[in-house]
Amino acid sequence: MSDLHEQVMAALGTVIEPELHRDIVSLNMVRDLEIEGDTARFTIVLTTPACPLKDVFVKLCNEAVIGTVNGINKLDIRWDSQVPQDSRIHGRLNVPMKSIIAVASGKGGVGKSTVATNLAVALAESGAKVGLMDADILNPNLPQMMGTGVGRPRVANGKMVPIEAYGVKIISTGYLSDPDKPMILRGPLLHGAIRQFFTDVDWGELDYMIVDLPPGTGDAPLSLAQSFPLTGVIVVTQPQGVAVSDALRSVAMFEMLKVPVLGIVENMVGEFFGAGGGQVLAEERNLAFLGQIPMQAEVRQGGDFGRPVVVAHPDSEAGRAFHDLAQAVAARVSVVMLQADNVIPIDIIE
Ligand SMILES: Nc1ncnc2c1ncn2[C@@H]1O[C@H](COP(=O)(O)OP(=O)(O)OP(=O)(O)O)[C@@H](O)[C@H]1O
Ligand SMILES: [Mg+2]
Question: Domain spanning 3-81 has what CATH number?
Fold first, then answer.
């Protein structure tokens, strides 16, 4: 490495990643530095393609290098991304998934499936490889909400091929059963069905597996949350007090199970249910507040007609809120993975 290379790297080593609070060189985010004339060209490898901080990095890198390193007057920054690997997933499931994120709630009907679908689609739009699993085995809603209908998945090489919509790979018991008949499955079978959804489905490589859980803190969500390694959970609540009390129980359950709570989402914010309950809960429990989603007819229509609002009305208030939510969740996933002892992040240089 030339002197100039070393000086540029040293200067970039003063740039702190705003979410992870570590410098971008020791995080191994700076790669392939080349110097041509007075230009330093390098790639920044983000921890998620859904990173909203590119402009911030450009500014911070310029401030760190230009005027500090003699002979360099220009930066040419390229972008790449690599979601960190949650190592427990390999240990326990042996599937090529980087992270598994559950969407949960204390109370039913608060918008878990709506959040799960819009989050999955928004992450896929950012360029991530995304899977979406309906762990609401008995009341599957994802086939309708993702507009796929209930066609059967193909089987290839002994594995089920997930159904794809809006760039997201989906599996649901809705694809495997008669849509008009109730499904009757008891605890151990539920457990087994979910495990099979991980191991007997040909997911390919995934950056984010989003799991839509059934509501509450009863048997089903509890045993599901224990049947696979979870990188983190998002707890959805409506703003009103009753929903918030139930969300608190859900948070407590995941804390007992030692599943990291990525944060709280407040859904259906507006005149009807009010606003602010989710944020207060986050503050009281010292959790991240991931965002507010307004109560809007377009959101409900998106679910009913199988075109999530992030696709159907990306510029509506709710569309933008879900887009921002995806970025907030992706950032929290990176943070949680880099904080956890049992997780091997992207090859960090110590
Ligand atoms: N922000 C919103 N604005 C308007 N309607 C919404 C919003 N969020 C969800 N809905 C609607 O509310 C209903 C319940 O939402 P959803 O099915 O996502 O909740 P859930 O928590 O998954 O329910 P369950 O506990 O039964 O699984 C759906 O009809 C959905 O379209
Ligand atoms: Mg649901």
Answer: 3.30.300.130
